[in-house]
Amino acid sequence: MLQPVEKPDSEDTESGDIFTKSGFCQVVTPSPLGVNRDKFLRLVADIKNRKDDYNAQLKNIILASMSYQLDDKENSERSIINELFTKEDREQNKIAQKHEETLWQARLVLEIGKILDQEEEEIAKDLAKLDNDTTELLDELQGDTPYGQEPKLAQAMEQLKTGLRVPNQGNMKKRVQAWQKLYNEGNTSAEPLLMTTSKDAADVLINAYEKDSGIPLVQITGMVLPSLLGTTEDDPAALCQTFSSVHEPILEKLATLLHQLQHQDVTNGLPEYIAEQFSELAQQWNQAIETTFPQDKHGQSPVSITIFPQRSCSSLLTQKEKNNDTNGIMLCAE
Questions:
Q1: Residue ranges of the chain whose pLDDT lies below 50
Q2: Does residue 302 sit in helix, strand or coil?
Q3: Cα distance between residue 85 and residue 327, in whole Å
Q4: Most buried of 24, 79, 95, 181, CB within 10 angstroms?
């Protein structure tokens, strides 16, 4: 799981994502801030607490927050040091500073985007609960719902999800570009698979690939995932552990097919025998999902698998080494 800036250990343990806390996912920071982390986190906290127009804030933030007011002693020391540098050295320092400012701004774009996403999700949950409570009360008054029957919160959440405000294509493209800048700077190991819950973000990568490569990509559909984990009293980590243990053969089959797709020539489309294997697997997978995560309780999201012929996942994010022997694979749970 990618994050734009490393978080304090206390925050990781107290308010981290349920999947990282339970060990199902590991957090990766492509380009860590290091000694400037606390300064950046204070800036993000200030932005979040203001509750202003985040887009306006981002435009108005002067990246002087990266610097600080020097006292007389520090100014004197800086002047002496500057005298020791040549003009070429000073120009290189300016270029380096500009580069750091670009990365700083990329992190801000992603952090503000995350704040907006979290607020939209909280609004959706509150509205869904309100709608669910109202419906349950009316049903009980009319005698349509037996007392004690579990409310259909999942249905209300699913309906509200479609009405959530999502970033426009331009803003989502800026988010993806911000990730690319950070990923390009880091030493993150190459990953064979990307996964996103944003169809808009997936479309940005897909459109860029199609425009640049001229090779048709391949998409596989038909599988689903639960969409509302954490909205019920059930422990989502425990449910995932149960699914992993009970349906291990299905998970192994999926991993084998995905690995095969990395090295399969798909420039002329998906071979029929692989398509048939995925069709069979999708039926088994969806039945297993319904058993552990009933749709009326946990919702459902369609999953698309996109194969980028001759373009690894690493090159999709770094825009380097565009021609590869392996295919990149992206899973998108809408």
A1: 12-15, 62-74, 77, 147-151
A2: strand
A3: 47
A4: 181
